[in-house]
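Structure record:
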Amino acid sequence: MLRQLDRPEEALGAFEQAIKLDPTYAWAHNGLGLTQKMLGRTRDALNSFLRATRYQPNVVMHWYSLTEMYIDLGQVQDALDPARRATELDPNYALSWAKLGQVLRYLKRYDEALSAYDRALSIDPSLTWAVNGRGVVLEQTGRYDEALGVLPAGGGAGARRRVVPVQSGQRAAADGSQRRGD
C-alpha cells in the first residue's frame, strides 16, 4: 500500500522487513521488485522478481512482473518464457495473453502476436490495449483494412474520426482514408 501511496522508501523498508522475517515470502519479493522498479533500481528489481518466481512459481503475477521487467530492460527475448509461463498458469487471464502478444510483437513474430492478442480479446473484449496492440501488428504487417476492422462498428461522426494508432507515423482513418502524421 505504501508504494501505491507514492511512499516508495517506506515501502522498501516494509518489504525488506517482511523478507527478513521470511526470506522465501514471494509476495514481499514481488512487491520489493515493483518498488525498486519505481525507484529506477532495475537490476535490483529484476533480482527480486526472479526470487519471487523461484519461491512461488505458480503465481501468475510474479511471472507477469518478471516479463514487464525484461521488456523494460530491453531484454525482450528473455521476456518470452515468463510471458508464456503466465498464460500457462492461468489461461483465462487476459492481461497475460496481451502481454505475451506485446512480447511477440516486439520480436516481430506477428502471427503469434495476433493469436495472443486474439486470445486476450476472447477473454476480455474490452481490453483496449490488446485491441491497440492487435491494430499495431496489423499495421506493421501492412494489413490496413484488417486494422480498420478492429475499430468499433457503427456509431456516427465520432466513430468515423477514430484512428488506429500506428508506429510508422501513418494512420488509417476509420473512413478508410490514409493520413500522415496526425
